[in-house]
Amino acid sequence: MNQTLKTIESRYTCRNYDGCPVEREKLDAIALTAVQAPSAMNRQPWEIVVITDKALIDEMDAEAMNALAEREDKTMYERIKERGGKIFYNAPCVFIVNKMTDTGSNWVDLDCGIVTQNIALAAESLGLGNCICAMMAIPLNGANGAKYKNKLNITEGREFGMAVLVGHAAAPGTPHTPNMEKVKFI
Fold it and tell me: Which of 19, 83, 89, 107 could form a disulfide with 40 if both were Cys (CB 3.0 to 4.6 A apart)?
């Protein structure tokens, strides 16, 4: 099996980081793979924001947890509390993939999904835990969303697409079991 297939096979959703900073050369390598992603008509309708300010990540984490606690349905809040009470699992780095809303393309979400997958697989290939995480939308679209968008320089014509948490795993994880029944050959 080649290295790419091994990386895909071994990747799992990490929900427990040791909080230690990730080496800058690894973050640069991951960022490069993000912008190397293909896109429809090569429009590249994305903007990547890499957050390494742990205090800011923790602040946004607390904001998200508070917002979940205020919801009538407490299911998600309770689930995160059972996993340690941190929505970003103590990750020291978050890659945010912002969608450019002014491209005229119908494929922006798909294109940003490809970028997200590149980030996750690159992190795995470098021995880093990672978690594709839509929950960053909570603080970015919440009561203090404008403040966070300003801190992250998310300007007009851009909106949150997806985030990938990246860091050193606190403990090893297990990939999900593939279900080949989901595949049909015609």
Answer: 107
